[in-house]
Design goal:
Layout (H helix, E strand, L loop, with lengths): L1 E11 L2 H17 L4 E10 L5 E9 L2 H11 L5 E4 L16
Antiparallel strand pairs: 1-3, 1-4, 2-3
Helix pairs in contact: 1-2
Amino acid sequence: MNTYVILRRGGWRTAADLEAAAERSTIEGDKVPEDIRWIRSYVLAEPRGTVGTVCIYQASSPEAIRTHAGKADLAVDEIIAVADTVIVRPDPEPARV
């Protein structure tokens, strides 16, 4: 599997909408763990008050990501293959919502 960044800009109106989407994503991803794995997401505060995400996935292909997104009813604005990972510091503690 390769690592990908998935950009989802303004995909949800509220944090509750995002939470429901995360549940759908987990359910669909668990059906094909050999094809796609959700690693983490960073939630974006979009300028219009909506919520977006930058998601890190491992997947067999960009097509597997698009298939997963379609089944989970998730937006996909852009899929970018990760060439390498440089860890300078561990991820910070989650921000309080």
